[in-house]
Amino acid sequence: MDAEKRQSLALKAAKVRAGIIEGVYNAKSGHPGGSLSSADIFTYLYFEKLNIDPQDPKCPERDRFVLSKGHCAPGLYAALALRGYFSPDELKKLRHIGAMLQGHPDMKGTPGVDMSTGSLGQGISAAVGMALAAKMDGKGYKVYCLLGDGEIQEGQVWEAIMFAAHHKLDNLCLILDHNGLQIDGDVEKVAGLEPIDEKLRSFGCEVAVADGHDFESLETAFNAARECSCKPFAIIARTTKGKGVSFMENQAGWHGKAPNAEQYQKAMDELNSAIAALA
């Protein structure tokens, strides 16, 4: 990846992060921590990887994306707005009565959302179904699914992975936002997951580990996913919860609360400085 592309993606990711803070602040509720940790992943997917068209959100040949950790909708919405699916002004209406953007993704009301999610562990099952449907229909689209590390404590996740491996769904790419924190604190203290890579392999996945905040590392992992055959592919993206906002980084308390006016201003000052430096 050349320096120009890397800088362009970093600029977009900073704008996605600003959109996350804008949305959660105006909603007075929401989930900034995991949205921010996923911002670079959203950016890479929507500006580099996915075969999509904002002017034709329901194109049958498009790639599908499922946000299994649906509470991180602010990150998805910010990426969709920046990609041109709807006006960025909608972000300020997040979670408002009658507005388009609900607290969790709604495929019926939001352009660009392929699956309604929110109940943790269930989104991956929908993604597996989409991938199987593509195989059965002879379609070439890919299915991408983003999960949280706390989320994969759910048994349904592993049932879905086992099913995907059994059916050789090499058109399915799972991405794990591995920031190490969940609503109750450290993932390893709540219900330890390691070694995640070995567990995924034992369930039939091909696995790559990436730096979830480095676009070259993400590109290498996604390129490996493209070359994988006869198996689902899983990318373990190591990230920092709250990435990009200094006082939110690595703080489990920012899993599900909105900043107050002073915190909002501090966060936006940091992000606007990052945007100015990259522009």
CATH superfamily: Thiamin diphosphate (ThDP)-binding fold, Pyr/PP domains
- Tell me how many strands there are: 7
Q: Which consecutive residue ranges, at least 5 long each, have pLDDT under 50?
A: none
Q: How many alpha or pi helices?
A: 10
CATH class: Alpha Beta
Which percent range fits the helix content? 40-55%
In short:
With 279 residues, the chain is of the alpha/beta class. The chain contains ten helices and seven strands.
Keywords:
single chain; 279 residues; alpha/beta; Rossmann fold; 5-stranded parallel sheet; two-stranded antiparallel ribbon; 7 strands; globular; transferase; metal ion binding
Description:
- The longest helix has 25 residues, at 3-27.
- The chain has 279 residues and is α/β, with parallel strands linked by helices.
- It has ten helices and seven strands.
- Helix 9 (215-227) links the parallel strand 6 (206-211) and strand 7 (233-238).
- The strands form two sheets. It has a five-stranded parallel sheet with strand order 1-2-3-7-6, sandwiched between helices.
